[in-house]
Every structure is written in structure tokens, then in C-alpha cells.
């Protein structure tokens, strides 16, 4: 694998963002709106709830972590969609570029965009609403890493799905974080869910993150087994996502789909 070719994919995204302020604004605008909205909701809940319980680390922290996951996933899919919108696949894969290099370039782009969104969220949540990340302690790092790996996996799967079904399938991708959030238990314990939803939740790495976050806020320790389970599932998801993308790409090349990729292809 060539680091130069991998960096070229990331460099292309830098040129796109540098030449288009309209692409830069969504990187932090939506996450900022979410933090402001939920920040005021938590302040209101603190004012009307019983004394002694602080909603900021439980609700606002959950919003921040989930927005980070969403931003990571969308960092991969948006970089991929740039090639969809410009119908650039034939040009890219006519080069010696490997699938691993292409996917690594998408991940590099996602790292840059998600870090920018994370910094904006941290600044707003800390300075405006008083969210102290010392509450979570050192566990914040593995929480973010698990969500990052899972977001990367979801982004790669989303890209592969659009590659297989065509650009019209793009609208199937954007709702994925909203569809996963009820199962991940972002705002409530998994015990709140029906039994069948709990089974689904236990195969989602983010569910272990948010259960761990609530355990810390409530003064309990984080289960090392649950944390390792979430990390292991995230790694499995990344490997499976890369395998899935590679298989879809080979199918597209073998059938000629990549050469006739158009907005009408949804089959």
C-alpha cells in the first residue's frame, strides 16, 4: 500500500473544501446547533428537576458523543459521495490505486472533518454549558475510539451500498444514524427497551459506550468486559465493512457497473 496514493485521496478533499466555503460550513454548523439546542434543554431540565441531579453530563454528553459518531460516518460517506456526484470512479480506479489505499484516504478525510466538529462541540459544551469532561475521566478516550471505529465501518458500508445500488440510493444512507440511535440507547438505559431491541442493541458497539457513560455519571464503575466487547465488535465491524466494500467493488468491475454508473441505476 502506497502512503503517497493514500494521501492523494485526502489531499483531493482538502482542495475541495478549500475552494468551496459551502462545503466547510456543514462540518461544524449542524453539530453546533445540536449542542446549543440540547444545552438549553439540559439547563431547563436542571431548573425543574429535583436538586442533586445534573442532566448536563448525561444528556449533553450523550449528544456530543453521538454527534461525533455521526460526523465520523458522514466524513467517510461525504468524501465517497464527492466521487459519486462527479462520476469520477472510472478516472480514480483507472489508476494503480488499490482499494485499501482508497478506503484509507476516505478514513483520513473523516479524521480531519470529525476532529473539526469535535473541537467545535467541545468548545461550546465546555464554555457555554459547563460540561466538564473530567467527569468521564480517562474513559473518554476509549469511548471516542469505539465510536470512531464504528462510524468508519458504517461509512464504508454506506459507500459500498451506494456503489452497488447507484447514486439514487444516497437517500437511504443519511437516515442511518437516526435509525440506529434508538437501539444504541443514546439517551436512556438499554433496560428501557423491549427484549428484542435489547438483543439488537448488544451487537452495536455504541450501546456499550453509552451504557458506560451513564455508569460513570451515576458514580458506578465501567465494566471492563463491556468495554472490551464494544471495542471487539467495532474492530469486527471495520474488517467486515472493508470486506463488503471490496466485494461490491469487484462486482461493479466484473459486471461493468462502474463504467455505466448513473443516477438512474438503482437495482
Give an overview of the whole structure.
The chain is an all-alpha fold. It has one domain (3-259). It has helices spanning 3-18, 21-48, 55-85, 89-93, 99-127, 140-165, 176-184, 195-201, 205-217, 224-255.
Largest sheet: none
What is the element string, with H for helices and E for strands?
HHHHHHHHHH
The mean pLDDT is: 85
Which residue ranges are poorly predicted, with pLDDT under 50 across at least 5 consecutive positions?
none
Query: Which structural class should the secondary elements be placed in?
Result: mainly alpha
What's the helical proportion of residues?
over 70%
Supply Rg: 20 Å
How many separate domains?
1
Total strand count, please?
A: 0
Individual helix count: 10
Q: What sort of overall outline do the alpha carbons produce when their principal axes are compared?
A: globular
Report the portion of residues in β strands: under 5%
Distance between the termini: 33 Å
Brief sketch in words of this structure:
With about 270 residues, the protein is mainly α. It has helices at about 5-20, 20-50, 55-85, 90-95, 100-125, 140-165, 175-185, 195-200, 205-215, 225-255. It contains 10 helices and no strands.
Amino acid at each position: 500500500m502506497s502512503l503517497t496514493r493514500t494521501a492523494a485521496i485526502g489531499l483531493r478533499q482538502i482542495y475541495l473544501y478549500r475552494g468551496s466555503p459551502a462545503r466547510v460550513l456543514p462540518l461544524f454548523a449542524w453539530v453546533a446547533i445540536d449542542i446549543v439546542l440540547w444545552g438549553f434543554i439540559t439547563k431547563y431540565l436542571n431548573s425543574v428537576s429535583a436538586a442533586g441531579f445534573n442532566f448536563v453530563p448525561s444528556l449533553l454528553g450523550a449528544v456530543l458523543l453521538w454527534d461525533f459518531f455521526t460526523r465520523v460516518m458522514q466524513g467517510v460517506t461525504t468524501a465517497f459521495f464527492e466521487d459519486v456526484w462527479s462520476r469520477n470512479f472510472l478516472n480514480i480506479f483507472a489508476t494503480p490505486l488499490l482499494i485499501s489505499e482508497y478506503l484509507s484516504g476516505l478514513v483520513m478525510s473523516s479524521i480531519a472533518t470529525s476532529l473539526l466538529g469535535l473541537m467545535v462541540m467541545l468548545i461550546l459544551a465546555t464554555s457555554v454549558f459547563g460540561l466538564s469532561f473530567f467527569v468521564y475521566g480517562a474513559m473518554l478516550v476509549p469511548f471516542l475510539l469505539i465510536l470512531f471505529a464504528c462510524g468508519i465501518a458504517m461509512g464504508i458500508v454506506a459507500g459500498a451500498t451506494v456503489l452497488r445500488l447507484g447514486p439514487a440510493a444516497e437517500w437511504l444512507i443519511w437516515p442511518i444514524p437516526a435509525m440506529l440511535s434508538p437501539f444504541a440507547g443514546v439517551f436512556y438505559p438499554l433496560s428501557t427497551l423491549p427484549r428484542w431491541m435489547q438483543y439488537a442493541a448488544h451487537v452495536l458497539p455504541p450501546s456499550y459506550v453509552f451504557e458506560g457513560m451513564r455508569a460513570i455519571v451515576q458514580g458506578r464503575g465501567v465494566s471492563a468486559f463491556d468495554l472490551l466487547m464494544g471495542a471487539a465488535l467495532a474492530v469486527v465491524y471495520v474488517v467486515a465493512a472493508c470486506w463488503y466494500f471490496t466485494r461490491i467493488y469487484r462486482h461493479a468491475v466484473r459486471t461493468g457497473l462502474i463504467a455505466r454508473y448513473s443516477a438512474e441505476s438503482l437495482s
